[in-house]
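input
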Amino acid sequence: MVDRSKITSWLTDMDGVLVHEGHVLPGAAELISKWQAEDTPFLVLTNNSIYTPRDLSARLTAGGLNVPEERIWTSALATAAFLDKQMPKGSAYVIGETGLTQALHDIGYTQTDNNPDYVVLGETRNFNFENLTKAIRLINAGARFIATNPDATGPSADGPLPATGSVAALITKATGMEPYIVGKPNPMMFRSAMRKIGAHSESTGMIGDRMDTDVVAGIEAGLHTVLVLTGIADDAEIRKYPFRPTEILNSVADLV
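output
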């Protein structure tokens, strides 16, 4: 039996852990209720930068999972927190949706295509040749290149969609510049999440469904890592990696 007595706060991934294609997974609602009843500090994390926390909270509530917006931490918020520390009140040319533009607006960033400090790329369904060209030219002219997350594809009902990582690869090929990626598996996303809830690595647990993002970033951030088998990981997948989570559970129901 794994000892969780030292764990006083939790970070959890969203897709594959709490929900799957809009459906709440077993134990998820009970776990969130337990944390809320016990005043346990927690955050629900997602690499998706399309939606604001308010949008995501509404979507989760509609699906039967009551997560307040202040309990949601997106790669867009983590990116904004990073830029706010690096260059407060800077400027950025943004390719992304409301989740990202709102997060940058909230830290006082100016969004411009006139000599910006950064080009910031997030998840979007609306990029076009013109804004890709603009991003490439701005990076070539000296703007620093940031991406919210490295995911190459995202899910849809009809199959995979190209995601931030794929678009970033196109820009990298055209400019020779790799982006600095803030979201998972960069442990910085976990550190900024812990700062938000006043948590410490030695007493924080991270629940995820992916070895290559959630678990590796959790290990690098010094967290107690829990891999659940409700997402993409199975025994064969787990065996491929040279590292192991602290514990492997069938679902979050085992934590209730």
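quick obs: DSSP finds nine helices and 15 strands in the chain.
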